[in-house]
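Hello, quick one for you while I still have it in my head. My current little project is about how a certain protein chain folds up. You're getting the sequence in one-letter code plus the fold written as tokens. Would you mind checking whether the tokens look sensible for this chain? Here's the protein in full, and shout if anything looks odd to you:
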Amino acid sequence: MTQSLASPISKASSIAKLGRVGLLYGGTSSEREVSLMSGEAVHKALLGLGVDVVAIDVTDDLLQILPSQNLDRVFIALHGPGGEDGTLQGALEYLGMPYTGSGVLASALAMDKLRCKQMWQGMGLPTADFAVLHEQSDWSEIMQRLGGKAMVKPACEGSSIGMSRAETPQQLQQAWAEAARFAATVIAEPLMEGEEYTVAILGDQALPSIRIKSSDVFYDYQAKYFSDETQYFCPAGLSDEREAELRELSMQAFKSVGCAGWGRVDVMVDDQGRFQLLEVNTVPGMTSHSLVPMAAKAIGLDFEALVQAILEGSL
């Protein structure tokens, strides 16, 4: 008798194909705390699926550890520099070890907000104007050019780390100094105060968008991972036409960077009602407050099924 896709036999066969999996999490970046939470959740899901998994809190001797673990593939749950910027992906390529998510170039580009925005501008994809900040910047001129209010961010960080808003030249300089603690390159964009959305990508599918409403000054680190007051709406409340437009734009942004497997695209609405691309996340959070699991749930995928789908993408 032919077994259905949902049968125990077919599921066991599918899991067996994955072999021995190394779960990389933790690490040493400023997003270590979030990565530990993501790793814990993914580890629990992999065990629930019956996957032969080895959880590895990444340290500097990773390249000595990995070859001794007899792994067939790797699930990357590392966020930020060192795990999401192409360096780890390059090491795994060198070792000939399959891994989840995007490759070396896509990971590096997506992590670098400046070059990502430059590429989008060259391709005609909508993204807000920006200025690169440095110690000798004309703070008054930049504030005027950006419309009097700005959002400042490190070019190569995630989880809103080092970000702050500025409404005066003095605040802009202070915001630059804060962001420069986390990255050598710092950019400022016009402050957009419209709705904020995120679209999860799984394989070749853009999942239902999520609208984010934060009670904080902006959707910062605290609001993303710890606040119980941040509100998420899925469905997002958009018309069918606007939802389709947002998902198509997000998929274009994802593919333009060369991303694959899974990820998330963040978008805001400007004062003219236009969608503006913010960034692509190649290893989004997988915590209790995370958005990719929320979007997956909207199409009937529970957390374990989502983790399995991500891991199967490494096949």
